[in-house]
């Protein structure tokens, strides 16, 4: 059995560890941000398919989580940013580097 998630950066697909959970859920289990089932029940049934027209501009419809998610910036951006990437208003990473943090020192 695998521990954690195993992701392929080329296809952005993950294989999930086998769920070992002692509960039964009428609408199935909730999913982690990686698309893996977690031991929590869904409050309502999952939509049968994800519709890209429901997603805000700049987001993609994830088949793993069946919801609108940020595009995987590692697949579309060739920049390496030592301070990480800037984020848009939706919280998705942009292909722009964040500036270095400024540290303020207190004078005594």
From TrEMBL:
One GO MF term on file is: serine-type endopeptidase inhibitor activity
Task: Work out whether the entry's keyword set contains Secreted.
Answer: yes
Q: Does the keyword Secreted apply?
A: yes
Q: Which InterPro entries does the record match to this protein?
A: Antistasin-like, Hirudin/antistatin
A GO cellular component entry from the record? extracellular region
Primary localisation category: secreted
Localization, UniProt:
Secreted
Q: Which residues form the Antistasin-like domain?
A: 16-41, 70-97
Mind listing the UniProt keywords for this protein, alphabetically? Protease inhibitor, Secreted, Serine protease inhibitor
Family (UniProt): Belongs to the protease inhibitor I15 (antistasin) family.
Q: What's the name of the protein?
A: Putative antistasin-like protein
| Pfam families found in the cross-reference section | Antistasin (PF02822)
């Amino acid at each position: 059995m695998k521990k954690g998630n195993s992701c392929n950066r080329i296809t952005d697909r993950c294989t999930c560890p086998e769920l070992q959970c002692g509960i039964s859920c009428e609408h199935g289990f909730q999913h982690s941000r990686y698309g893996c089932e977690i031991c929590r029940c869904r409050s309502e049934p999952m939509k049968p398919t994800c519709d890209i027209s429901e997603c805000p501009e700049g987001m993609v419809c994830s088949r793993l989580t069946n919801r609108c998610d940020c595009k995987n910036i590692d697949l579309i951006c060739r920049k390496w940013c030592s301070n990480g990437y800037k984020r848009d208003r939706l919280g998705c990473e942009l292909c722009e580097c964040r500036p270095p943090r400024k540290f303020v020192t207190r004078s005594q």
